[in-house]
Amino acid sequence: MAETIEGETFRNEDWYGDEVTDRTYQGCTFLHVDLTEATTRGAVFQDCTFGNVKFNASRHHDSAFLRCTFTRCNFFEAEFTGCKLVGSTFAQSALRPLRVVGGDWSFVGLPGADLRGVTVNSVRMREVDLTSANCAEAALVDVDLSGAQLHGVNLVRCDLRGSDLTGLDPSTAQLGGAIIDPAQAVVIAQALGLVIR
């Protein structure tokens, strides 16, 4: 049976290099916890609050951070593989360089986030909030961005190939030098009101 921890507060703890496996945290608070180079596998964090937590160089595999709040956290060189972060929000957090492969980040709040140079590949990000986010020179490849909030997003020199851009209003985004495929070019042209014959 997986261990479940509910409603606890972890403050000023050193979890450097720890491995969290098949454990569930429900409604817990993490404040000034050092998770540098830590690893999670099959762990679940639900309705948890993270404040000033260091996720530097941490690795997360098939774990879930559901409806969590991350404030002033550091994700320098963190990696998420096959993870679910549905409904989580990030505020005033350092998110680069970050690597995300697979998983579900739908309904995640990243308004105004600095995502320059991050790598996101084959991730479901339906209705994600990227309002005014800076994704310059990032790679958002094969990402499901259907219903995403993209007003004011910076996608300059961003690799967008294979991603769903149906929710993108080109007139409200910065797109200079962005890399797209032919099918996406048609979607963007239609969004601009152009007629393709």
From TrEMBL:
Pfam families: Pentapeptide. It comes from the Bacteria. InterPro entries: 5peptide_repeat, Pentapeptide-BTB/POZ_domain. PANTHER family: BTB_POZ DOMAIN-CONTAINING PROTEIN KCTD9 (PTHR14136). This is Uncharacterized protein YjbI with pentapeptide repeats.
